[in-house]
Amino acid sequence: MAKNCHNDYKMKFTGDEEFPDLSLHNNHMAKVLTKDIYNKLRGKSTPSGVTLDDIIQTGVDNPGHPFIMTVGCVAGDEESYEVFKDLLDPIISDRHGGYKPTDKHSTDLNFENLKGGDDLDPAYVLSSRVRTGRSIKGFTLPPHNSRGERRGVEKLSIEALATLTGEFKGKYYPLNGMSDKEQDQLINDHFLFDKPVSPLLTCAGMARDWPDGRGIWHNESKTFLVWVNEEDHLRVIAMQQGGNMKEVFRRFCTGLLKIEETFKKHNHGFMWNEHLGYVLTCPSNLGTGLRGGVHVKLPKLSTHAKFEEILTRLRLQKRGTGGVDTASVGGVFDISNADRLGSSEVAQVQLVVDGVKLMVAMEKKLEKGESIDDMMPAQK
Amino acid sequence: MASSFTRILAGRNPAVLLAGLGAGTAAVGFLLSESGALSAESKRSLYPPSADFPDLRKHNNCMAAALTPAIYAKLRDRVTPHNWTLDQSIQTGVDNPGHPFIKTVGCVAGDEESYEVFAELLDPIIKDRHNGYDPKTMKHPTDLDASKISNAVFDEKYVLSSRVRTGRSIRGLSLPPACSRSERREVERVVVTALGGLKGELSGRYYSLGDMTDSEQQQLIDDHFLFDKPISPLLTCAFMARDWPDARGIWHNNEKNFLIWINEEDHTRVISMEKGGNMKRVFERFCSGLKQVEQLIHERGWEFMWNERLGYILTCPSNLGTGLRAGVHVRLPNLSKDTRFSKMLDNLRLQKRGTGGVDTAATGDTFDISNNDRLGKSEVELVQMLVDGVNYLIECEKKLEKGQDIKVPSPVTQFKK
User: Fold this and answer.
1) Residue B56 sits at the chain A interface (C-beta within 8 Å)
2) Which of A90, B61, B226, B400 could form a disulfide bond with B220, CB atoms 3.0-4.6 angstroms apart?
3) What is the pTM of this model?
């Protein structure tokens, strides 16, 4: 155990006395955590001092919802995934379709491997977006980091982003100190992220010291955007109006790889390993951390009896146009890949491109009053 | 940057290097250990206190006013016997900059020892908040002899209800911001067992927040007894809502005039209340109940946190001393419209709140009027001040009703500074 571990005092009490009451809970952590696992792991700590109670607090405080299965735990640093693997491996397996501790994850950020994606009908596909997260090696993660570390991440990020040129040339706006005018513009552009209000995040300690060390960077054409120190060290987003997902993915991959070069030069590359891919704060974002999606008009298809089944077979998920936890407006849905771990970036975006193309074709058929039964896809 | 440091780096102790480089953020690239992991020890040298000092430029709370880089540097790496740190104490004040008009405290204690280990920060905060009370030189008087109170039965035409509350902490267990689940459960066990020994008009029962039935819950809501999971960021940022509702509950006597909250913002909050104006009886029950509970926990080898510098030790420094808020809901339709009302309250050392409690607005002409002070005066003194003050306000109200004029009273004397 690391010296001066804040857990030492708690070890005077027994595991039974400390075990959380999870009787009303429905999240991955509550399903996996047994007294045996708790007893085995409660005395451990990562080198930076992250302990079991730190990573599960959010799942204890947020019992969950009968229909929505949240993860219920977060990583405090890169080593959390190793030190607490007895808890996290089964959670990862549950969340990521049976992914085994021995499985290897493939990373593919070569945008040229994507087939098509430049011909989604803009009459239906209103906008296209790809996002991911990146964690910077040598710093602990948002649930655990100190102010000094968070500022260190910010400083390095500003330096890295300042090296970008051409289509990626842009500017950083620290959350603390932006002018009202800048703030309004960022809100109008739908770029500004706000202090988290979701208890899933606040109970995990991610809103501490807000807005210290937080900010938004974007390029001049507003098609490439980076969030610094929100739920992850970095969230990287490429987006534009219309259906040219190919172009969005090209910009995404190119920009990401350029940023990564700069971090590597400072001996602070991205957290990555061949088992878990990119290491992020929430276990649900491991692997690619990628959510590629479109805002698409599907008023008829979305009310069809087989809509959910189509999405499942295509390995896609729907959300409202406000993002996670929102409802759809006017038949417009956010459709994105459901998977993160066990398949590459290219593969996941390919599913979105192919799946959305099919669904638009189905929508057109339904508009004409025709059946879509012969278009049903096989399970991907 | 890289080239000028690589020469220095070869063969030198990273911790020494870092100290020489000054503010930690300049050198973040160079302290990865073999595995790339950031250990807790290297973190301390990698990030000297100056790298972690919070940005308090927009803040208006007692902590932000008192915390200097020098104090932070001295205290940052200290740990109390319950593993509680300065950063944890001040987190709520960093996260909640405050309000231009309302000065919050901005820090909490994680355990009894916090008030010693972090005295360099907490003593000035206590002085600021408690009218110059100096914990280094002064002693706080405790007096729970209700027989000393006089003139404490108010005219019920004006006073609708009377209430006295305080808090008590169980010595040896961490406070709500810091406590582990087992400590919190232990507080619940100790207190509920003790309350089970209360007899006569104080005998009652316990309702655990997690186990109560829907109809019990509704009854407690109707009685205005039920407390809910804190939503105020002042409390949630101080880690007080963790593991909700584990080990939280409400105990009340069968008469429903003596009530105890368990594991909300403090280990216990003790409340005596009644409809009407008999503050004398409310305070008598308050003192008697407190004494009996204390006796019952003593029998099992426990005691309340108390010392002669700070009186009763509670989570928020604003509640030290007596932790006592004695108040009434009082109708003052004429007086409340008088421009001198606020000044009168100030001089009487009283505060007004809406009838929903702190942070609410008054409904109609009815106000919650209570004592401002907590530390440096005893319970008896504070309740008598409240009683005298409320009597004065009622006299003023009656005068205004008859069209007579009123006088602003001279300020009540403070303790010797």
Assistant:
1) no
2) B226
3) 0.90
